Amino acid sequence: MKTLIRSTLTLTAAVLISVAGAHATVRTEAGLTESAASKSETYRLNVPTEKEISTTQIRLVVPAGVAISRFQVTPGFTRTVTRNADGLVTEVVWKGRVAPMEYARFFFQAKNPAAAGELVWKIYQTYSDGSVVAWDDADPARGPASKTTVK
Ligand SMILES: [Cu+2]
């Protein structure tokens, strides 16, 4: 019985740790945080619901110099884009539902900037109660922004 309790506690701790690490992120399709200058890359936005209510909206702020060309179809979600004067997509908003214990993935193709540097992706995750979780480095410990190193 003692052993059972201990292993249950260990499992609970492990689950808590994995949930804490499951932030909303942008990675390459291969799961990497680096890519090459001027490369046409496929990026993957991963959004886990981390509350007991659903995620209803995800807003992505696209780093300057990144040229999004195409989105993979994501059934169940609508997408709205904002473009700048040059026609580049600067923001993307997806609306839909990511229920508790679920995650959603959004894939898009983009051309990286010609210059090396760091891309900072800001993600704003809205829940059904209207609360917004900011993954934008405003509070790096709790809401880190995703970064891609362009080499
Ligand atoms: Cu998390």
From TrEMBL:
Q: Coiled-coil intervals in this record?
A: none
User: Which Gene3D superfamilies did the record assign?
Assistant: Uncharacterised protein YcnI-like PF07987, DUF1775
Q: Which UniProt keywords apply?
A: Signal
Task: Give the source's domain of life in one word.
Answer: Bacteria
Q: Which InterPro entries does this chain map to?
A: YcnI-copper_dom (IPR012533), YcnI-like_sf (IPR038507)
Show the Pfam families listed in the entry.
Answer: DUF1775
YncI copper-binding domain: from which residue to which, for each copy? 34-140
Signal peptide feature range: 1-24
Question: What protein is this chain from?
Answer: YncI copper-binding domain-containing protein
